[in-house]
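step: validate -> pass
step: tokenize input -> pass
step: predict -> running
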Amino acid sequence: MAIRYYNIKPWGRSLKEYVRMFNLTPDDLERKILGCGDGSASFNAELTEQGGNITSVDPVYIFSADQIRQRIDETYNDIIDQTQKNQDKFIWQEIGSIEELGRIRMSAMEKFLKDFAGGVMQNRYMPGELPFLPFSDKEFDLALCSHLLFLYTENLSLEFHLKSIEELCRVSNEVRIFPLLDANADRSPYAEPIIDYLRARNRNVKEIKVAYEFQKGGNTMLRIC
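step: predict -> pass
step: emit ->
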């Protein structure tokens, strides 16, 4: 795993959450989808069960399921502790407590771990990392990037973000990125420069409100096509 990714801790999200984070319609779910930085999310496993066409790419996929499970075990309590200390930055409505959050995340990660070995054999989980992806031009209809770009503003530079978004646009006809907040639940300082950069290059880019908000203010995605 690249050094810059080492501190990005596994924290899986479900198909239901992806649908709401990215405003995914039934038609969207029938498209050829790339999940970039999916990590231990169960999105791939669940969508595949429904007959979807999904490929996930993440540097963590160079490891075995047992090694990923070990990393989950090593970091789980730290993530829960940090969430406990910063719980005022979250909206505890649909997820009612720290304990419930832990159960939801572990459920998603268990689904991922059970699916991982088979998914690797089917090339549904592929090791790779931004800003250079192992795919052909316009190989996908839709690329989704959840909780990576913008979130890790302190770890990943503006240049990295710009190159990464250009790469996502290269491999896919449409790109959606969620959320636009950094790890402190503040709007990423990269949001406006990136939007301006894309518009200056005649990209069709919109910030769209979605039906998902767990981090306070984290209810918009960037849609580029």
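step: describe -> Helices lie at 15-21, 43-49, 65-85, 98-121, 158-171, 191-200.
step: cleanup -> pass
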